[in-house]
């Protein structure tokens, strides 16, 4: 099943929602306007549609395999990654100082979606490498930067994140891997790390592991964790590859999905100790790791959008081809393609609305990131930083949860054929399920949203977003047409429900934390639904404004109908979520653990 | 992971919701009271927990395989099925005249749940056989009954349903398999059938295929379809197995789940014609097949409940064992088992509430079936038949859709471990997805609900159910306690939303069929949610009535909290569904097929 990147939608979002013209006013991004975006996206689409997407099914059928500590990836992956590197794609968002292209996230995130739609498993290798690059850029010494960054940004070497241990999944306080200081300033690292994505593979010459470990004598808990670079191959004085370091892959997991992506168990230090280099200062590892995680969380949210888009395209193609039964409205006499049946349209519209809504949200968040990091005005940076930080758990949590709904509907549109592996729809269903788990489960995103992003400032940041939404409502209500009016009204009801939830959570977070956190995931889903709907409300206004002016009318109609569908069918879920959060907290914990 | 049948919950439902004491007043069911139910269920649990459940994972790892037209099932399946047959389980609900036990569906459905929780793939063989038995009982000639029923009811032979063809999935009007009358009164059958569950296997001596085909010269469409018995082995005059019939398995599907269950492509008549025996009259095949389908639809709904229960037990065990992070309420200093975290409890309670609600609905529906078929009073039969017919799409559609949510949460509770196949949670997620598809997709159930069950009588049947629900609300509101009051209020709001939807659908079904059918699946989900909640409302009242009277207080508390949770978190979804149905119909079909 081929894939076609949704360039029109991406460029529409960049132009009208993310306001790439504003991004291009930021020093350093002067060349990163809409034209650049279009050129980059077209090239990105060409490469991924042609080279990466065709490897998606082969990767599922012939996953990575392990023999004698060596992981062999699916045939074709190595060559495709070489092309990916040569095309400069790994360096897209990274600084020109180290060989990158220095493009804004506003463009980079869209490229990330295309890559992930093409092949979720393949895309994980660059995704993790991006995170490792960001951590080194922020916290690495000049020497570490000089040693590693150029090779990583060029795609010659890849990066990994080593957090999880068997007893320490989400709870990094339990990390036991240890690092012993050596007289030469290096450390020797000992321990076992699990769930290491692309922890071992044959696609690059070296792998730069970023590893959380405890230095002997460090405080207990998360305040005693440090971050180390542990390369697979040590480097010679001339920077060339030297000795094999003492880190080995001892097994890879047998997973439900993303099978081509090797998930490694890494053993550090079984042969004398793996040589590690401290990143930044001792005991600040978690802080640095959060840099990687924040980058990765956003990127995993984009994975949700990506797999949803792919599932939608797959289902749509089937719905336009499969002939079954007569339409209820009599529009066709005799059997018709199933897209004529209202419920098939409902499923396709749901898939499309959730995907486009999440994409619009992610695009706006990306622009905020760019302003937060690069805008010359400190006040603008701070505002955008606050907005972006509120968005990260929504992009990660909502976009991935919605991808489960979308990939389920994708199978459902196919009927019995959807359950047969050869059809391909089932792979998206299996692949997507990891997205709500890794880089922090939905509950962990929701805890972040409830704790750091909502209750810590008494709901002020959340309410500032609500105020922005209210402005869009007013524009919609003033537009004088039914679609805009309905969207405005539904957004209004949804925003009020959001404020009820914010008030409840802000009030209860300390008074009755169980009550606040019992509604954490429903609150995340409510907020994500609202913000995605808000962006589609803005999109609706923009599309209506463009009608009759020579733009692509079919695209504009699709956007307006999709936004209206979102208002009718997705925003309507919000008041019930509010009721569950505000009135349903007690019944969540009314049974004590021992009463189950 | 072991499985323990939820006997307390099943017996509670039978006693207080299904009113098995009333069932036992029906002639023929005098011995089928609560004591019998308990004895049967305990024996059923013992057998399935011990023999069938341990084969669930092996069936996933080593599915059925095909070689030279012969399907070999997973090691152990054949022996387990022999024990199943010897235990009399295949005959549980079938008439004593043919060697069955003649128990009511009220008991049989619970046994079905236990079998399916133990092993969804294994259970499909008896499930399909049950359907074939019912079709023969209703429409078969005395000769066909005498020839086949005893062996099928004893479990020596199994049965299949042959509907689907490559071009005819849900649309049976497109069936092309043909049947040519022979001078001896038999027919020769030619054609290809796909998706035939247990269409070939090694667990029984003979397989009795029930096959839809067209007799030469029959009318076009569904009115020209006849039903035939096509046994794998023809019978000798003495009833013993004779020649191999001309029906062969040419391939089995590679599926996402229920892998142990062979899904066959059957080729009829490639070597001169498969001998078939007409069931009932020519051209009435679809009518007879609906008998099988109605039986099977209810049974597939029970499969949803079954896999949800199994996923719940699996997740609960993990949540009680896995230690991660400190509880937000400070109840434990340091890392605690994850069941202490509010969101894990929310997930477990959601799983439990959806499962118990669906089980309560199915149990009540089963009792209605028994009264509809066996009650001496024609008026009582008619009332119960109407109720049961309304319930079938809900039991099938709602229970299976909820099983997707539950099995997803089951993986989610496990975090990263859930995505690793060895953990076992992923299998439920993969297995469950077929349930919303086979025996009629959710959309087909919803069309049945909208068309035959709601709009045909102008909503009268639906409103009669709403009136019954209103009585329960009044009892709840009169109970004088918070849990009952909240449940009563939420049920009231939900019932009103249901009535809005019924009015809309009844009004639009002819005026604007696209509008009515655009909301068909949301309407099914709304109605299922309401009816399951209603049954939990009744359960809440019953449980409160039993408190302090020497019953199992822990069970009663669990039931009350679960019902309250359902009111707070599941019934609250209903008003939004109403809004989508009543106000959102237009946007579903606003984009024409060619505009996608």
Automatic annotation (TrEMBL), chains A, B:
Cofactor: FAD
Coiled-coil intervals: none
Keyword Flavoprotein: yes
EC class name: oxidoreductase
Boundaries of every Acyl-CoA oxidase/dehydrogenase middle domain copy: 161-269
Record function comment: Involved in the assimilation of dimethylsulphoniopropionate (DMSP), an important compound in the fixation of carbon in marine phytoplankton, by mediating the conversion of 3-(methylthio)propanoyl-CoA (MMPA-CoA) to 3-(methylthio)acryloyl-CoA (MTA-CoA).
Stretches assigned to the Acyl-CoA dehydrogenase/oxidase N-terminal domain: 78-156
Protein name: 3-methylmercaptopropionyl-CoA dehydrogenase
Pfam families xref list: Acyl-CoA_dh_1, Acyl-CoA_dh_C, Acyl-CoA_dh_M, Acyl-CoA_dh_N
Reaction equations catalysed: 3-(methylsulfanyl)propanoyl-CoA + oxidized [electron-transfer flavoprotein] + H(+) = 3-(methylsulfanyl)acryloyl-CoA + reduced [electron-transfer flavoprotein]
The keyword Chaperone appears for this protein: no
GO molecular function: flavin adenine dinucleotide binding; oxidoreductase activity, acting on the CH-CH group of donors
Keywords: FAD, Flavoprotein, Oxidoreductase
EC number, as in UniProt: 1.3.99.41
Family classification: Belongs to the acyl-CoA dehydrogenase family.
Record-annotated Acyl-CoA dehydrogenase/oxidase C-terminal domain positions: 283-449
Chain ranges of the Acetyl-CoA dehydrogenase-like C-terminal domain: 466-591
